[in-house]
Amino acid sequence: MTFDPTDQGIDAEEAHERTTDAIADNEVVLFMKGNARMPQCGYSKRAVGLISRYRDDVATVDTLKNLDAFREALEAESGWETIPQTFVDGEFVGGSDVLAELEERGELAETLNAEGGAVASGSPDGADPEAPF
After folding, report:
1. In a 10 Å sphere around its CB, with 0-12 CB exposed, 13-18 middle and 19+ buried, how is residue 25 labelled?
2. Does 120 score more than 50 pLDDT?
3. Cis ω on the peptide bond leading into residue 129 (within 30° of 0)?
4. How far apart are CA 53 and CA 130, in angstroms?
5. Residue among 64, 133, 50, 36 at smallest CA distance from 99
6. Which one of 56, 60, 82, 106 has the fewest beta carbons within 10 angstroms of its own beta carbon?
7. Which of 3-17, 46-60, 112-126 has the highest mean pLDDT?
8. What is the per-residue pLDDT for 116?
């Protein structure tokens, strides 16, 4: 099997449908480059690490299947086209910088509707930002 970087995987209509369905069907969804086990950019890796401190049941959508179409679909939902993007209960929260700011203020767990704090293990405080979902 040969990798073709020009193969966009899905069309714009399917990207819009996947975006709206993922937001509607999941309490927390992260649109990212790559997946939770293998993020394909530093911002996506940062977002996964922050969210995984509090939630292990987050849906992820790999936007690399058609980056331009997902950017357009996400902009229609949030007014913002950069990736990653996090939605909680259908509401746009933000990208990795916003998640980091919420974490610094001690508000990320509440924003993510986390029950009881960190779910990952591996560090003294119970959170392992490098742990996959």
Report:
1. exposed
2. no
3. no
4. 9
5. 50
6. 106
7. 46-60
8. 56
Strand 59-62 relative to strand 28-32, pairing: parallel
Name the one residue in this structure whose structure tokens are 């980091």. 100
Share of the chain above pLDDT 90, in %: 76
Strand, coil or helix: 102? helix
3-state percent breakdown (helix, strand, coil) of the chain, nearest 5: 40, 15, 45
Cβ neighbors of 85 (< 8 A, separation 6 or more) are: 30, 31, 74, 78, 92, 94, 95
- Under the phi-then-psi rule, with left for phi > 0, alpha for psi from -120 to 50, and beta for the rest, what region is 117? left
Rounded to whole angstroms, how far apart are CA atoms 15 and 12?
A: 5
Mean pLDDT of 91-105: 97
Angle of CA points 65, 69, 72, to nearest 5°: 140
Q: How far is CA 94 from CA 10, 14, 40, in A?
A: 24, 23, 18
Furthest-apart CA pair in the chain: how many Å? Answer: 47
- Give the per-residue pLDDT at 128: 40
